[in-house]
Amino acid sequence: MATDNATILQDVWLHGTNDFQQRVPDPTQTSIDATMKALFDPMNRQFYNQFLDALVMRIGETFVHQQSYRNPLAVFKKSKMMYGDTLQEIIPKWIRAHSYVDDAEDVFKMARPDVATWYHSQNRRDRYDITVNDTELRTAFTEQYGLNRLVASILQVPMNSDEYDEYRIMMQLIAYYENKWGFYKHHLTATPTNDATGKEFLTAVRSYAGKLTFPNTVYNSRQIKDVPIFVKPTELVLLITPDVQANIDVNTLASVFQLDKADIKYRTVLVDEFPIPDCVALLTTEDFFQCRDTVYETTSAYNPKTLGTNYFLHHWGIYSVSPFVPAIMFTTGAGTTVATVTQNVTGMTATIANATPDKGDEVAITAKLTGTLDPANVDGIKVAPNAATYETSVADASGNVVTSPVTRVDEYGVLHVSSKLDYGDVITVKVTSTYVNPSDETSEFTASVTATVTAPM
């Protein structure tokens, strides 16, 4: 419902300075005519300027925001940056586990985590101009809702223009991501238009909502390596067009995000179209867009030649996308093929660091699988794992078995030679690989090493 002149004038008067309230009559205690007469008095130009600025910049924005066009992607924007023009996004890379060593001497060694960093810089500086003429303002007072319509006409055009431009900038970022890095793509046989294609789409969305709860590097940008990403279903956001939304079951879609039907609108964002051919929908998180305002304000300047006041809406900001979060595109085009490395294990070797240990010595045994990878030479992938179990036996120089319960191999592959053995005793360690082939029959691979207990020279 529109707000009448008296209400707007009262709001402006309450927000005015002390001088303004002393020189300009309160419209609730006097007539609007008295207030208008004081404002347009040539000797009260400073109060006229205060009134107009308050009307446009404070009161007007409140009223217009209630009825103006809003950028549907504005929900992704973060809080305004008060200082600086560059946003640094950091995510720590995961670290590897270490085995326990009883005599470790590096307890105070620094272990700084490696991090992946991305910078988002200010890349928008736009200005929207509009003029208010004194005559237009005088005319607005003659109608009960004239001031409401005036501020709407003043601000709605630049604000709508700004919101729509921002929407298009953010939509273009989707095309930028595809061109720069490429989305992970899931192929659909067709755009959802009936029960079968709708179920296919919803099944795929639900499948990825589950998969993304497990750490994986497949679904985020290929630009970022060694940074597994996982999210909760409630953190996911689905960008879809009205046509797709109209052809899917909202109740089913709500279950994908584990939300009530009433809350699903907060997890689906409608866009008019995607700037990528064959794109049906985009599944990502609320952190996909890295967009922040750095300057958002309205300024004014009075032009005595035209008896008009020029208003300038300034909007500066950072508009970027994050390579760290999962982003899955559903498309009727080709899907993404993830290369699978196949391992063919042919055997295992075992080596001992010292084949002539003394009594009480500790000797490392190294077990290693042998085999091939297809494709070969994939960065970071080797024939593995090299884990094994160990069986130890001891025989004397004549080949008779010797009982030695304290001669053993620990969990780190270190042979502990008993001090109770005799020189010339031979230690045999049978090494059995714990490798398991998850997709085919598993063959057992073994190797042996021997060591002769020898007196030091």
Structure, explained:
This protein has 457 residues and is α+β, with helices and mostly antiparallel strands. The chain folds into two domains: 224 residues, no CATH class; 111 residues, Sandwich (Immunoglobulin-like), CATH 2.60.40. The protein is built from nine helices and 17 strands. The strands form four sheets. The protein has a five-stranded mixed beta sheet. Strand 14 and strand 15 form a beta hairpin. Helix 4 packs across helix 6 and helix 7 packs parallel to helix 9. The model has no long low-confidence stretch (mean pLDDT 83).
Which features characterize this protein?
457 residues, alpha+beta, 9 helices, 29% strand
How do you describe this structure in short?
26% of the residues lie in helices and 29% in strands.
